[in-house]
Amino acid sequence: MSSLIRTDLPKKRKRGESRVFRLKTFGERGHPAETNELSFRDNLGKLLEFGHFESSGLMGSWSFQLEVHRQPNPLYVLLFVVEEPIEASLNLRCKHCQYVGWGNQMICNKKYHFVIPSKETMAAFLKLEGGICASPEKESLSHLVELQGHVLHGFFHSNGFGHLLSINGFESGSDLTGHQVMELWDRLCTGLKARKIGLNDASHKKGMELRLLHGVAKGEPWFGRWGYRFGSGTYGVTQKIYEKALESVRNVPLCLLNHHLTSLNRDTPILLTRYQTLSTEPLITLSDLFMFMLHLHSRLPRDSYINNSRNQIISIDSTNCRWSQKRIQMAIKVVIESLKRVECRWISRQEVRDAARNYIGDTGLLDFVLKSLGNQVVGNYLVRRSLNPVKKVLEYCLEDISNLLPSSNHELTTLQNQYQMGKTTTTTNGHNKITRGQVMKDMAYLYRHILMDYKGVLGPIGILNQIGMASRAILDAKYFIKEYQYIRDTSMKAIQLDGGCKLGIFCTIAWKSHHHNNDIKMPPQECIVVNKNATMSEVCREAERVFREIYWELRDFVVDNQREMTTRVDEMALNGNKGLVLDGNVGMMMNIEVMKYYDDGDNKKDMRIECECGAKDEDGERMVCCDICEVWQHTRCVGVQHNEEVPRIFLCQSCDQHLIPLSFLP
């Protein structure tokens, strides 16, 4: 495995070495695999053909080297795809499926983990691998997928359902932003044609839970940008409760909030006034306030600020270039004036360069300035730079941000004297400015003192006292799902492939589950590819192979021989929009093995959960079992704090009340 770990890229790649792929396009169709719209299994196989394969015992892995950027310094990351067969799994049943609401899903034969290790997890893995080399019976790859703190870790079951376990951006020491990691994951899910992806939203920034912050601001979690929606909640929170909680917090009027906070907390009303002054639109509700702050934070470049100084020119470090600061400032002025003349519309880098060359003959200086000006504030303007997704060329645009400037120096100067949290507005040469970091600090302060510490700030003041309760409900909605609707939305029962030589049939099977009261089980459809003139017998054999390959419970599944097997597939009538449904049975030995698993107490099938919050199923939160009635409840719901140990002997309230009369017996 150690041969997979490469800290840098050789200047010249030797023949036989692994290829390098661009992170920005990896996972799209043709980058690198030509995927189709039919089968997750086929698409995954096509992708893995481009990876560098190595095996370790029962598990195998493929590695891909991804180029993040080339300038100013080359940066590469490694993506591992680890195949985990069910024989190497500690538990047959997937706990993530249980928590997100897919507890009735059939058990799959394999998982495919997609992992980008962080520097820390890579170092830990190499250390573990060194010890494992002396013990060949141990699986080194299993340690890689078990480590916590990867830049990216998600996995797919072999039927196309999957889970995103973790992403980590700059704040965790990663070389990638959280947006870059999520874009990569979403491209992989889209390109491979995943069915559904679930996640446990634990994203946070500067101590703020993003599912609450973005929920209040935008009405959806941070992952909502990529299409993730409510899946299931913890502590009995349903979708209806979640939506009601969002609505109640988002619509709290700032005027009412400001009125009550004035007598309880001096700093919070000052902040509300500050951002109402900065906004050109009226901020009416709590949602408006947090939305404006997020928008303002996103528009401020890193390590820069908005100020009310006119004609300010940014300072570019000229210590490592051959031009003086004076020549650089002159070139900046020329570029800004060239962008002004096109009236704030997007133009290509070449057009800006050509217009500036009428005044600056040194093309090297122009190239240096254009590179340095990207997303920088100059006076009242923000120089935008973006890659045109169609033309694949860099484009520039000048955005007027004067409407974000303070309308009155006196207002902000007054606010400076009243800050008591280290959030003073910085001044330079008498000019007020708002830094990106300051907006984040203000946002964290309002988050803590309005959304979280509501009792200390608001007290029992009617409807405002409900903010904390609603915030708690929003935080308890942790599991979100994205459905990739590529098979469900199609009404096709079959499709011609390879110029009409082959036929792809959307097929599922029906069989009696002896461990589920003989209920008829039907897994999701799969695309069965056969020759156009194939007989029904050939279709059945291919369906048996595909479903045996995917599901552990169907390893010896056999289609019932009850229909005319010589019928050609292009002549048979498919079952409406369900496509082809094949009846079948599972062998006796497999039935015994499956029933033994479901009868095993380790799978917690027989757990009786009756919590006062309304929960009836396991949701991943800590629980405690009554030693008399053996009913499970959340520790939080019975008054056991998260930092407290679970009592060795625990009695629920009902059993405790029944025992009180017994204490008086002789």
TrEMBL record:
What Pfam families would the database entry show? PHD, Ubiquitin_At1g33420, WHD_plant_repro
The Gene Ontology terms for molecular function here are: zinc ion binding
Please state every residue range assigned to the domain named Zinc finger PHD-type. 610-656
Q: Does the keyword Zinc apply?
A: yes
Checking InterPro entries in the record gives: MS1-like_ubiquitin, WHD_PTC1, Zinc_finger_PHD-type_CS, Znf_FYVE_PHD, Znf_MS1-like, Znf_PHD, Znf_PHD-finger, Znf_RING/FYVE/PHD
Keyword list, A-Z: Metal-binding, Transcription, Transcription regulation, Zinc, Zinc-finger
Q: PANTHER family, from UniProt?
A: PHD FINGER PROTEIN MALE MEIOCYTE DEATH 1-RELATED, PHD FINGER PROTEIN MALE STERILITY 1
What is the protein name for this chain? Zinc finger PHD-type domain-containing protein
Q: Which organism is it from?
A: Brassica carinata (Ethiopian mustard)
Upper lineage ranks?
Answer: Eukaryota, Viridiplantae, Streptophyta, Embryophyta, Tracheophyta
